Amino acid sequence: NAAGGVNPTFNPSDLMVITDHINHMNVNPLIGPNDDEMGERFPDMSEVYDKELRELVKKCAQNTNIDLKEGVYLATTGPSFETPAEIKMFKTMGADAVGMSTVPEAIFANYCGMKVIGISCISNLAAGIGNIHGKYPANWQGLRFDTLAKIQELTGEMPLVLHGGTGIPADMIKTAISLGVSKINVNTECQLVFAEATRGYVE
Predict the structure, then answer these.
(1) Residues 6 or more apart in contact with residue 88 via CB below 8 angstroms
(2) Please, where are the H alpha helices in 4-144?
(3) Which DSSP state fits 194?
(4) pLDDT value of residue 178
(5) How far apart are CA 201 and CA 83, in angstroms?
(6) With contact defined as beta carbons under 8 Å apart, do 17 and 69 qualify?
(7) Range list of H helices, the chain
(8) What would you report as the CA-atom Rg of the chain, rounded to the nearest whole angstrom?
């Protein structure tokens, strides 16, 4: 998933393997009559995210020189983003990243006896730590094109999402286009900038 960074040591574009989660959605997908063929009424939640799979992901990250983070993912319902006060509370609760998905699916998959692995892409810093468009540290080098290129080399496929704020430099946009990135997840102003840069690059 894409998530906001609550842990102040995280930077946009970091990958975080989920070690555990906090369900702050005030709902649980298992509420209601139980289907005994799917799983037991009160499933154990002590290791939702399979330790062996997490170790495998960490090994793959080491082999490809990816600085993989680990942490706790907290889920809210959205659709509004969190307030700085809420992020402060989530940090106190032990969250490293926050988003609006994944937890219901992980709960149900665990209930069914499936092995679960979760990876969050830190797309921006959370409110109070950054802003919804990404408040990057002064020493941040920009989008991790080296990581994208490595993924393309290893899998033959290219992630299709470019996330950034209004100030994506033209040369970075051109590099993204040359790598095959074809979709962005940003605000309207940046979408217009991206569209214009695309036309110029193609011409």
Answers:
(1) 128
(2) 51-63, 84-93, 103-111
(3) H
(4) 66
(5) 38
(6) yes
(7) 51-63, 84-93, 103-111, 145-155, 170-179, 188-202
(8) 19
Q: Which long-range contacts (CB under 8 A, 24 or more apart) does 77-83 make?
A: 77/25, 77/26, 77/27, 81/4, 81/127, 81/132, 82/4, 82/126, 82/127, 83/127, 83/128
- Decide if 53 contacts 115 (C-beta within 8 A): yes
Cβ–Cβ under 8 Å, residues 10 and 122:
yes
Which residues fall within 8 angstroms of residue 143, CB to CB, at 6 or more apart?
13, 162, 164, 168, 172, 175, 176
Residue 174 φ then ψ, to 5°: -60, -40
pLDDT, tens only, 161-177: 444 444 455 666 666 66
The band of 134, judged by pLDDT with boundaries at 50, 70 and 90, is very low
Q: What six digits make up the tokens of 107?
A: 């709960």
